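ASSEMBLY PREDICTION REQUEST
Request ID: AP-0331
Submitted by: J.K., bench scientist
Number of chains: two
Total residues: 563
Priority: normal
Notes: Please return the full assembly, not individual chains.
Input sequences:
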Amino acid sequence: MSPDQIGFQTLLKKEVMRFWSVLGQTVTAPVITALLYLLVFAQAMQGRASVYPGVSYTEFLLPGLIMMTVIQNAFANTSSSLIQSKVMGNLVFLQMAPLGPWEWFGAYVTAALVRTTLVASAMLLVTIPFVQLPINAPLALLAMFLVSSASLAVLGLIAGIVSQKFDHIAAFTNFFITPLSFLSGVFYSVHALPAFWYQASHLNPFFYMIDGFRYGFFGQADVPLLQSLLWSLGFLLVASTVCMWMLKTGYKLKK
Amino acid sequence: MPSSPLPAVAIAGVRKSYGKLQALRGIDFSIRQGEFFGLLGPNGAGKSTLISIIAGLVAADAGSISVMGHDTVKDFRAARRKLGVVPQELVFDPFFKVRDMLRIQAGYYGCGKESWPWIDEMLERLDLADKANSPMRALSGGMKRRVLVAQALVHKPPVVILDEPTAGVDVELRRTLWAFMTDLHRKGTTVVLTTHYLEEAQELCERIAILDHGQVQVIETTQQLLARHPFRFLRLKLAAGSVLPESLRALVSGEPNGAVELKLETARHPIASVLETLRAAGVVIEDVHTRDPDLEDIFVELTGGDDA
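STATUS: Completed
Returned structure:
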């Protein structure tokens, strides 16, 4: 293994160890929160909301909840790690190390994927007694999960790079990530919305991530899978390009 | 230690401004392999900016720096593998234990398990062995400083920069640290030191550069620097009622502990003639003491009395 590969592997391991050391906060807590959503909304909405033929509301809700949790945790993992290192000052250890932009990018994003895989798997496992989801398109499911997780991990990296204090990250989360993830069709099918909101939903990238992920389970969704995949891939590409430019130029990292 | 034609650190035309403030106004000098080099200057002289540029934390506006022949921008990976930097700020990662942190740091530099015995040796040498499994956040300030030193050395770099490593640390740690660094230097490591303790620089450094207002004021061997100003100090404790003659008052450089200290240029004011003047004026001397100028005196001469 080359020194660069060891460097990448070490940063990845360190990032995984970082969230692993506070597993209750990084994995258990979001799973419990999502379960509470499932219990409350399933009870309140079962039989009231119009979803897909042959799919109960609880079944419909769970993939959306999983993807919403994945989106929020992928963003939180990279952004919180970077801002903590900045605020504590220990980012200098990484900045002085012989690690290039690709190693930073790859390690942070992969660590976020590990966390979201844990979160999603835990959610699927603990809900088995209540909901048995079919898996109609496993490849689509995997692709949508990976692309969506990576997209939000990259967005979290960008937020971490741009931010100088915890308040900035909180602003990203409160005014961008949370509203867009709540208004992305997690709790409803966009076909049930009035025309304006139906159209507006189609401008929300998180809608495609959730819709495409749901397709993987049910083989049906609000928009074609290809459209969801392309939107998500496009989002990932744009975010990655911006992030790599920041890492290569040292934007907000180097004085 | 035989010197090599390849400098350990070569700095050429480095400039850096923060808005209107010119932190570095064109720095050019080299540090030879195997040197114990001192980088001194008052607060705001540009020392930390220069070190940050060498380390890759700050981008220079102009100029270039190489470490062991590797450009710190174009060939940053190779340059950084040759360099270890102990930062001035007491920074640490609260998520990890001491030994884990050092192993992670070694991994960043491409070092695997083969570096673990060296890490354990450093823990012993820096009196950190009993703290190896302690969380970083549980360490005292002095212990955290030791870990910073170990982190800079995990990959056995041939060039080490210590940015004020003894600021605010106790005597024991200073001794431990300097014994360790002196040993590394004896084995061939190039050591670059910035410090506000000028006696440390005088004792340890073979060559010294003094920065002021973003420029190198002087770069010489420590001996050359000390010989640069041919003067001596004569400290006199005068008996009660005795007054210094008018002709000597212009030579007074200080009045430490009730004594009078005269700064004498060797050629113009031989000590014998000064004592003769005092005797002729009837001055009664209770005690007399002479000393050579130290680095602090030279530093004050060159920087106009700013704090080191």
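REVIEWER COMMENTS: Chain B touches chain A at residues 18, 52, 55-59, 76-81, 83, 85, 87, 89, 91-96, 100, 104-105, 107-112, 151 (CB under 8 Å).
SIGN-OFF: pending second reviewer
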